[in-house]
Amino acid sequence: MKKTLVIAGLAVLSTSAFASKARMTALQQGSASFYINDTRSVFLNPASINDNKNYILLEAGTAQSTPGAAVDPRSEGGFFREMGTFSYGLYLGNNGGNELVSHTSTAGNYMAQSNGADLFVGGDMGMKWGANFHMASQKNEATSKKNDAMGIGLGVIQGDMEAYAHIGLNDKSTGGAAATDESKISGDMKIGGSYKLSGWTLFADYSAAKLEETGATATKSSEIIVGVGRSHEIAGGARLITDVSYSVETIETTTKQTISQLPVTLGVEADATSWLTLRGSVHQSLTGNVKLGTGQKVVPETNHVAAGATLNFGKLKIDGTLTKTAEGTLGTNETISNMAVSYNF
């Protein structure tokens, strides 16, 4: 009990302002925001490495947890540094893959991505550019299970415009129910861009992937997101976070399922003192629909509340997030998530 209270207290007084998954989770922006620029932006657009550099980041979590999970996130970390007009970085543990499908989504008996490593490089020659190379590999000799993955990311930023593309070159797992079973993700891509206009950011994103597994029907998934977002000052040291988007996700196996939503996010971030930044947000789809064949039903409850903070110790920052669980409770072990430490040099 005492341990729980100590951890809970630290999480409330945490969050590396502008530097980790903790901030993104507290503001409910996913793994990286389409319109808020911070050090997580490099995973969306590698060209943002030119704006965020000279730091080391360590994310606490569980080694084998689900990528991108708000509760019990995956542990990871790395560093980014400038060298003249160029920037580079090495990041370990980002085992992402396409968020639409995974090797466990159908048969549930394959090894997912693990031991991921990303190498980043970028430069500014009037137009900011960036690229990253991703690879992951793991093998379990005892069970004959194996996974190998590889991908690249490219991005550019020119004035108020930016664009990015991520392509999965290979993502294959072997050893399912039988040693010869295979699970393969193909057509893995994520492309998008944004444009800043009158303080707002207009954004669009398209993702697609196909999962093929031995003895199972192939799963094709795609998602389109278009929206607008803004982060602006509302008072001294306080910022209002606002966004609205429209998304359509399609999942096709023997049948075709379409999920459409209109999510809205309202959040606030305030510098309470020179050493403490607090933030919180509410996220909900104003409307939603699931269509399967000729039948329709309303999307389940989408309301979600999250909060977090940052402790600033000069160049050292500590992050943490409190999130609302499915049961709607706060203060239990399951709600303490996304703790991180960063250091700027």
Report on this model:
By secondary structure, this protein is mainly beta. It has a single domain, classed as Porin (Beta Barrel). Helix content is 5%, strand content 56%. The chain contains two helices and 17 strands. A 16-stranded antiparallel β-barrel has the order 1-2-3-4-5-6-7-8-9-10-11-12-13-15-16-17. The longest helix has 11 residues. The chain starts with a helix and ends with a strand.
Q: Tell me the number of structural domains.
A: 1
Helix amount = under 10%
Termini, distance in Å?
37 Å
C-alpha geometry: globular
Indicate the CATH class: Mainly Beta
Query: Which structural category do the helix and sheet elements fall into?
Result: mainly beta
Give the number of helices. 2
Characterize the main sheet: 16 strands, antiparallel, barrel
CATH architecture term? Beta Barrel
Radius of gyration: 20 Å
What is the succession of H and E elements?
A: HHEEEEEEEEEEEEEEEEE
In order across it, which strands form the biggest sheet? 1-2-3-4-5-6-7-8-9-10-11-12-13-15-16-17
The count of β-strands is 17
Mean pLDDT score: 83
Stretches with pLDDT under 50, minimum 5 residues: 1-17, 64-71, 325-336
What fraction strand?
A: over 45%
CATH topology: Porin
